[in-house]
Batch of 2 targets.
Target 1
Amino acid sequence: MLIDKKIDVPKNLIKIAKKTPFIPAGIVCAHHQLSMESAKLAHELGLINPIFIGDMSIIRKEAKKLNWNIKDFTIINKKSDQDSAIAGAQLASENTIKILIKGNLHTDILMKAYLKKEFSLIKSKRLSHIWHMSLDTINKPLFITDGALNVLPRLDIKMHILKNAIGFAKKVGVKTPRVAVLSGTEDPIESMPSSMEAKEIMKRAIEEKIDAYVQGPLAFDNAVSPEAAAIKKISGEVAGNADILLVPNLETGNSLSKIMVYFLSACAAGIVIGGKVPIVVTSRADHKASRLASIAAANIAAQ
């Protein structure tokens, strides 16, 4: 981190997750210190019952280092990343697990296994990534989507991302989410395609009677700051009070979330939603608090 400030797991996220305790979770390539450590913390909090997938000998060694007796848990011994990912997808397909957690492997290997048609983990929705961002300076979470999966989503895909995000926000307790469709301006102008798309997304949301307030285009300041929105005379349910930021592309969402983490010590809980089971896809550089918060978010998404 670029500032010396503790990152805290949001208490409300843990509280909601505990409503459905010990959800079965498959940890793919669990032979990894941070993966085992976060799994232990999540189990001790009553969030998951882990199934370990990966190199059995290393998994047992890492558990021993943590003074964690895992003799009553299932370990599926797999030597390669691909085989571990396939085993995790198989468990999800068979309804043995309700959460898939990425351990020590590349995200694309896990996602390729998840997307295989033989497992039927994708139906009518499009997969999307969402961050549940929390700061000790604000009294509600901020959701950012999609900053890790869909690189430059088309308009129809953005509608899937929008609906996934609204559904997750409702599970976290936001009754009628306020969605800001971000661009670099609050006025739709043809020279900025994202602003035109934002206008169309708002139109479609109204036509489809989506149960949320959707407004766009909005620049970031107008989305989150009541003062900025007032100065620019931007009104509406969302302006200055957004719950969800629907970003125009992956770079925007990825940069925005990491700026909040590294400059503001935000806790970033990131998961992939829209499939049969949610997927925790934390980065190797993610803080321990973010890993635990991501597991809690996946627990909630699976409820």
Target 2
Amino acid sequence: MKDRFVILLFGVLTFLLYFPVLGNGFLTDDYASLYRLLIEKREPFLETVRPMIDISFYVNYLISGLHPMSYYIFNLCVHAGTCFMVYRVALDLPLFEGRRGFAYAFTAGMLFLFYPFHNEGVVWLSGRLSSMAALGGMLAIHLSLTKKWLWGTLLAVLCWYIGLFAYESIIVLPAVVLLFEWIKFRDVSRGLRSLAVWVVAGLLWLEFRLFTVGGLLPPYTQGATVRDPIALRFVKVLGRCFLPPSENWKWMMIGFVGVVVLIGAVNVVIWRRKSWPYLVLEIGFLLALFPAVALGVSTRTSEGDRLLYFPSCLLCLVAGAVVFLLPLRRWRLVLCGGYVVAGVLLINANNRRWVFASRTAEKALAYMRAGFQPVVLVNAPDEWEGAFIFRNSFNQGLVVNGIDTNRVVVKHFLTRLEYLKVNGKIEPVFRDHSFFIYPSTQIATMSEAERVYYWDKNEWKKLISL
């Protein structure tokens, strides 16, 4: 009965938190999947071994066609389900007993629900890959902790495979499962048997991966380089688990130092109390950061937050344990209440960015659909503060929307680094009988100017109306 109440509560709160994005449209990579399904009519996307995106989009298409509402509802349902699985895994762990155990599990689930730094996996349709992977990963942990050894482990492996077919963010799950099994069972022989099964499962997945893709990473990431050394990337990713993105690198560095000091202080207290299961749980969280460290997460915008989705599941298990292990009885409600308020504010700010991105994309599509004359777009935005707009799959989006690609010309895709250099709006400059639009577009003839729309950092405008 409690479980039914908890999952219902998580579902209602998820809907209330993310209600503003339910009116959003498709963006960037969303059109890549729709193009494969509707135009190319291909089998699930095997080039990157992530067929779950096409499968889930196809189910949504059967429900609502090209109306995006059901796609967003699906994202919210997956997120609410993951919140519930964080709660269930916390119940499975023998960290606390009785009512205290339920309070810990409920707190961990609520911390995850209001966690503000993984929204990319919720509010971006293609970002559902990370939330589906995390849901599969948490199901795997739950099954390994609650079912009889062999069947529980085999079912956990199956969930791991399904999650990997969504996103590789849970590639380290076997190590996490083994750590959680040690926390609950403290059985060396069981641990060795589980290790053998997971090693075999990992080798089979690796062989399949090499056969289909030719490497651990998808083709579009192979050959890409991350300049920062691994230690610095780890610090950045760990800091971003606790801090919102910011352009002010000085404040970010101060925040990172504060995070390290806070983690150190908490661990000293826990170490003195000899709460070994907590420390093992913390190791599991640090292991879960590996994919984000390998690929990198932005400290300036929310870009890449989807890589924090699965680690944040474990972080909230750790944070919930901290709330009940430390002598914070009088301050628990105050701390949790402050966390909820901050989470709501940050989630709402991120929602607004994605709503803005969606409206910007939809307005451009409306201009391109109207009339029969060619349309010229200047400064089609790549993103808006981490919310993707026209970064990828632009032509595929036109085709899916029934727009002739031959009558649409994009003069420039505006990046974030370019628009940050402009204070206020981007304004065309008329000189020498032609228009110049920052950063690099020259419109030489009036006949061309009559069909030009440019983005001024706030909205689309028609050039000739000047």
